[in-house]
Every structure is written in structure tokens, then in C-alpha cells.
Amino acid sequence: MTPREPHDPQYAQRTRDSFARQRVNATLGITLEEVAPGRVVVAMAHRPELTQQHGFLHAGMVATALDSACGYAAFTLMPADAGVLTIEFKINLLAPARGPLLRIEGVVKKAGRQISVVDGEAFQHEPGGERKLIATMTATIMTITGRDDVRH
Amino acid sequence: MTPREPHDPQYAQRTRDSFARQRVNATLGITLEEVAPGRVVVAMAHRPELTQQHGFLHAGMVATALDSACGYAAFTLMPADAGVLTIEFKINLLAPARGPLLRIEGVVKKAGRQISVVDGEAFQHEPGGERKLIATMTATIMTITGRDDVRH
Amino acid sequence: MTPREPHDPQYAQRTRDSFARQRVNATLGITLEEVAPGRVVVAMAHRPELTQQHGFLHAGMVATALDSACGYAAFTLMPADAGVLTIEFKINLLAPARGPLLRIEGVVKKAGRQISVVDGEAFQHEPGGERKLIATMTATIMTITGRDDVRH
Amino acid sequence: MTPREPHDPQYAQRTRDSFARQRVNATLGITLEEVAPGRVVVAMAHRPELTQQHGFLHAGMVATALDSACGYAAFTLMPADAGVLTIEFKINLLAPARGPLLRIEGVVKKAGRQISVVDGEAFQHEPGGERKLIATMTATIMTITGRDDVRH
User: Smallest Cβ distance to C94: which of B95, B110, B133?
Assistant: First the structure.
């Protein structure tokens, strides 16, 4: 991937501000770790109240963090007045999310004027220091302008 | 769709029991509404703490409910000793999830011995009584047997 | 699905004309069977020169017919001067495509101004008259206007 | 990606033999360029008889080559007596396939006993020597054993 030039020099602050307005992140414990042009990293811990029937993090929790990482990766490259909406995503679950910690990364594959395509990867960081890929996502993201209900 | 014959006559109770063990459902307020062979309906309300930056339910919340509906729809047709794991899913987000209430349905398209394919639809029930399709999912679900960490 | 009102009263002829310009259809033997607002049916026969290593139709051949059915289903509801482009699709392959005949249907789930979402189903028609669902698709389709290289 | 050890030391010949039995490859002009453990590259030229209505290669043609690259990438890591079947794939189309030449690569992300997940990328090689990413795929591939109709 070549480095990308953001349209908006304030892209990092704008991304952090929008992420902070996603109330679901505080509820689930998803934190914003890194913001770069076309790339965002979030983190999430295994919590018992977010598990499915076998005690792993529910696939939907991993999908939530991946979707946020992918959406905001696209958002870093958008104009200052644009909003971001996910049109669709696909997730493959490669291994159970046992925790204790996940780091989830979104990287823009194509930044279009209207449509961006972003790949996400969720890594599990295990106590011994090992890193394991547990899920991948591809998300199709739309740049929204001129809509009062969808901004930033 | 032709009606389907479940392998396990206790499929409904088995499904309700497993759903009750998914702690994420209580956390997010996802409730199990209907269980039939090859079909499951869950419900979910808009809650401010589950929203994204525009005040809509986060796509990951809708995906969580859809994944549970799809997974358990497949589970109703599995043998009594089988566990269920989602291999992958794809979601299309057709309209913002404003609430106040979502009903989410999973219907099995193909029940295979190892692999099942399930379609999901999320409908928003608006105050005036209107019902609107806001998201669709296709999920690929695996039947797991003989693994101690994945049962029921 | 409620019946849909096409923007363009000439939608059927416009769709047939565009389909006829897709040279791949003649090459692979894909034919346009039905055109209705928001719904298109195509057909395709098993041919030995389109098979994979086990003698079934290659998944890509089924995907080609499904993508055309989905894209043109969206096209029927577009303005007269619009072009259609597939942004992405996902296909689930439920059973091997043995032939002899496939009928493939695309039905619009959401017709948006820019983005449409279309579901496709491929049915195998077997000699005894049985009909079997062998593949499903969800496609995200974009309405293109004002681009010289993409029209009709 | 760490290098992977194939189960079958004859993986390369086995892959070339199976690819040669896919008659669709000869029909569409898809050629096998590279075979390594967990990675396969195929090539394909733009041909007028494979185009859609705007003169670009039809999305289904790109999907066919990507599916073959992904399926055979998984196949390189399978036991000698296994067959390979695609369960599902998703493709994002990033730019029109104008040609003249495409190189399509499949790389295994996870090689499981039953389920493998493979990422594919299609690059367009333009006359000036530029290389452009025009499509990405994620494919879920199944290892099949003990079925007479699906081997190698």
C-alpha cells in the first residue's frame, strides 16, 4: 500500500471526535488506538457479558469492532464535511475469540469519491505474547455529503 | 420453503437453553421471540448506549442480532449433541436503524450435514405500525460435533 | 415484495438491449427469459467447456449468470439515462451445478437512488422435473450517471 | 504470512493436473502462472467475447479467475486424496477490468482441516507497465474427502 494523502489535515482529530460520539464503543469497551491516513486500529477485551454460549466473544462483538475500524479507516481519507456509512460488510471467523485482548485493524484498499473498500483484521493477543489472526472483514463504505442526519 | 423436520424433537427447548447461555443477549437486550424448525425470530430495541455517531443503532448491533437469529435457525435442525459456529456472514445495511423496535428473522436456506446457509432479515417496526426492511444477512454456519469447547 | 413502479416506461426494452450488448452472454449461452420491474430471470445450460475439475459448472459461471440477473433486476428500476455497475457480490454455493438447465433469478430488495441491493437464486431443473436451489447471491449495485464510459 | 508446509510433497503437480481438468480455463483463457504452498497466481487477458455492456471484462469473468486462484491456493495445502469445493465467496470490484492483462493471486489466510479461508487480488497490468488493483475476493473453501464425485 502506498501512503495516502488525507483531504483534511485535521483528519486525526475529526476521526477521534466522531469515534467518541459512537456510544457503543464505551458500552462494549472498544478503544481507539491508532489513527493514520487510511488506517485505524482499535482494541477490545474479552468480557463475560459479551460472550456467546461457549464463553467466546460473540461474533457480533468482533464484527462491531471490525466495522468501526474499517469505517473510520475510510473516514480518515474523506473530506472534512463528509459523513460515513457502512453499506455492507462480510466477516470470516477464523478462530474463537477467547481473549484476553483483541487488536483490530482497518486498512483502506480503495478510497473512491463515493465508495471505499476497506479490509479489516482482528488479532488475538494471548498471554504468552502470541498474536493470532481470528477474523477478517471486507467492508464497503459510503461517503455521505449533504445529509443532515448523517454527518461526521 | 417446505417445512422441515428437526432431528431432535426437543429442538425448541434446546435452542432456548443455548440462547439463554449467550450472555451478550441480556447485555444488549436481544430477546428470543419465536423458534420453529429452520426459523428463529429475535427482537431488539434501540438503546442510546448502543448507537453510532449519528444516533442510529451501530451496524454491529444489528449484525449481532442477525447472526444470533441465523445461527439458532440452523441450530434448530441440528442433532441434539451438536454445537453451532458461524464460519462467516455478510450483512447489507439498507436503512439506518432508528428503532424503536427491530424484529430480526433467520430462515434456513440449506441445512447440510456440516454446512448450513441461512438468510436473515431485520425489520424496523415504526410507531405508526409500519414495518421496514433495514438489513439483510447471509450466514454460513457449521455443525460441530465431538469438540469439548463447542457444544450446544 | 410490493410491485415496483419503474422510472422508465421503456425499462423492458432498455434492459433487453443492454443485455444483448453483454457479449459474454452469447459466449456462455446465458439467455434473458423474463424482465419485470425489479425482477429478471436468465437461463443457462450445463456445457462441458464451462466445467471445473469434477465436471460441474464452474462456480464462476453460476456467479456470472447470477450477477447478470441481479444487475439487470436493479437496472429495470433505474432512470433511462443511467448505467449499472456491480460494486460487490457474495455467492453461496449450496449444491454442485450438474445441469442440465439452470434458471437464475434476481429480485431487488432495495432500490436506492445510488445503491441497490439485489438477491439472486439459481435453481437447477433436473430431468425428472425437480427444481433445486443450488446457489444464492446478494449483490450491491450502483446507479451510474454522467459517465461516458458507463451508460446503459 | 509465514511460509507453509504442504501435506503433500507433490502438491504442485497435483495442483497443475487438477487445474488442467478445469475445462473452463481453456475456454476463457485462464492460465496457471505460479504454484507455491498456500499461494497460486493465474493470468487472464481481456477478450471481446467475455465483456459486459460497456466493453469491460464481465465481473463474472474476474470472479471465475479469482475463485480458481483462491480454490487452488487452498488445494496446495490439502492432503493428496482431498478434493476442493468453494462454499462461498465475496468479490469487491474496485475498477473496471479494461485489460489488456490481469494477474490474479490467491493467498491462504487460514488453512483448516475442513475449512480454509483465502484472499484473492486481481491486478490489471496496463500497457505503460502500471499495475492496478481492480478486484478483491475472500473465499471459503472446503476440503472434501471420501466422496466419489469430488476428488482432486
Answer: B110
